[in-house]
């Protein structure tokens, strides 16, 4: 019987702890336990055999930390080979009667993935893939990915396992006392991610005892369709007379775990502090029990790195603003690689209450796969909303899905054979709920029946890929009512049938319906209400539209979905102010400066933007810049240099100025504002501290410099290549750590060699004037204002020549 | 030789705003910056997850050589700091990833807020270290890699012994910086 079959019909018993037993056998603190596979095979075989003898169906190889980050290739192969052999030997020696399997054990890499740490996602996949291939080569029966405390690393390991083997894969996470992973994911979110990628079982291990993990186990059983794994610690460790002891006895442990088996947990074992005695007690406790049958939960759910969002409980709002279609400023931002603009749109939509964010960066002449991947990575670094990957470019879709930290909503597939053939394999591999458009090779049917027929075909085809209909969300296509007065009713009729008869969830891009009509918001709002009444599960919409927001909150209140109308009351408070936001009327402030200057000096960003918007109606943009914004910035900048203004206030003012500039950019053609520079800016290789660099960037932009921000941890060659490509006259480098100053020195050296025209300015916590001179930099920037002054002087000299 | 690594967590004291302003390079607050700090503290809420892992190690000092049993480091400043102690606590402390997420979020969107979150994080991790050191050693003086002539490479020894990755989710980058960033490792004499 294969392990996969066995898992379907049995309560599976794993083994217990390894590390604590090795310590008892004199493993030294700091010593790699994996090396004992080769140096002490007798001890390892002994422990494995003791677990088989105690009743384990599965023992896990002693390979928790066996990866390329800790061992070189040659040693790693020896260790994994010996580890699997040791388990095989133990299996051959044990006379215990149960089925016996060997799991290749894979623990965390020991590094945190970017952007929180410095390990790249694909590098993590590569590291895990290597261990997986060795496990397969030497004959493991299954793979156990365990103790993962980060959803992103979990995904990397699972992807590596799926791409490099056909073995069953069990995935187990380490949840903290608050019931979430160290990086924030709830059990529900992990179920979405792990099941979506096709793991054979999922669960929880380590960190807590069986009582501490009880809540997590119950959640996992509630949401998972695959078997749930539970492998707790023997409680918490204490030091007694120099020895480590755990506070839960074998009998207590077995009783607690058995109780959770009765509730549906299917794969059980022990982690830190558990011994063969615990597994023997556990075997006795669970042997009489029959497995709770697995049930398909059929939930339509997507997730981010923190939480899951489920279709059907409440209507969902999908913010549509990250999309360049018809947005000049957004197109410009994309073409200039201005990711900050995209992030601010994301954050703003989140503040307006959306549940998911649509991400579309499709433009002609753009490398869409690279851009969509970057957009997804940057968004998920700062926003915890699930993303809807919106693209017709399959390469871009795969690039984004691969890097997405969760289970995405995918927009979209349709009834055309080639669309389904391209999209469904990606859904199957990376997980995801996919929006299915009811159109096919013959276009969009004019009737509701025609659209429902396409939906049925899509459901049937998805099933052949092993994709259930709960992973599909149908969009019955809102057409323009001004062109065809039955357009809305056909869409709604198809929507209702799909929701009620086919039992699938639905979504609509609501605003198409009003195209060509005046006061579109009014039409959209009513159409949205009609769609909700006909079973709409999610709307792709403009969250800044007051009409849409009013409809949404009123519908929920009226539909009994908003207890005590609490959400409506909260939202209603913003309806009133939305139209009357920040329209200051005074033209002079008490100290005689203009209101805009006052707002910038004080750092009131919203007010600065509103005032600028108003002034633009009767003043040329450049006059506002030269007579208002720059003088205000100079006031604060001089204050900073004279030590009457401190850094936080300087930054608040700079941000207010930036908001004012955004308003000005919005009305000026993109290329009329002549910019100084460009100024290439980077935090040097190995260093991940970029706050100082960001401050310099903000101020330089305020003073009219075009800044090419290469980010942090930037290799010297990248800096030089960028300077050469743009023939940049200025380059700023930042380093916080003494350990990364050599990288700065190397970067300066390369610049001098390959781009001798470029002036270098360096700064950062550890730097001094002497140090800057020593490494050959042209200038030492003691703070951000100093950088601005220097940049201005270099630019002025260049202009004079 | 056996050695036990233990975990601890503490509820942190109220935030010391004067320390925050010091870390934010501000000698005083203004009405506007004070309002911004309050907004940051509201946004932070209770998302920090302070945790510490530590072990008590034997100590033998011979000149600059500090022998902790599990490993030795050569540092005359550490030797001076631990002079007269027979044992030392080695610990790793972190306030978790939440503050890093906020710093990343605002690095792009609002450097002023990013600066304040940096400063809040610095204040919180120091408060955690103070609470821990008072608890296990009765005093607050500690000595971290990077102080004096104690090399940053000592981080590797500390991480190997404490298994910080597994115990408190703290990892060491190639450049010997820690992630999450608001974290400290140090020695405390007993």
Can you lay out the helices and strands and say which pair or pack?
The complex is a heterodimer of chains A (801) and B (190).
Chain A: H1 3-9, E1 12-13, H2 19-24, H3 36-39, H4 41-54, E2 58-60, H5 73-93, E3 101-106, H6 121-137, E4 142-148, H7 151-164, E5 169-173, H8 187-196, E6 201-205, H9 214-223, E7 228-231, E8 237-240, E9 243-246, H10 250-262, E10 267-268, H11 276-286, E11 301-303, E12 308-310, E13 316-322, H12 328-335, H13 339-351, E14 356-359, H14 368-382, E15 387-390, H15 394-403, E16 409-414, H16 417-430, E17 433-437, H17 448-464, E18 472-475, H18 487-500, E19 505-509, H19 520-533, E20 538-541, H20 546-558, H21 566-579, H22 595-602, H23 605-615, H24 621-641, H25 647-667, E21 676-683, H26 691-702, E22 705-709, H27 716-726, E23 730-734, H28 741-754, E24 759-763, H29 769-774, E25 779-780, H30 784-800
Parallel strand pairs in A: 1-10, 2-3, 3-4, 4-5, 5-6, 6-7, 7-10, 13-14, 13-20, 14-15, 15-16, 16-17, 17-18, 18-19, 19-20, 21-22, 21-23, 23-24, 24-25
Antiparallel strand pairs in A: 8-9, 11-12
Chain B: E1 6-8, H1 17-23, H2 31-44, E2 51-58, E3 60-62, E4 65-67, E5 72-74, H3 76-82, E6 87-94, H4 98-109, H5 111-137, H6 154-162, H7 164-168, E7 171-172, E8 178-179, E9 183-189
Antiparallel strand pairs in B: 1-2, 2-6, 3-4, 4-5, 6-9, 7-8
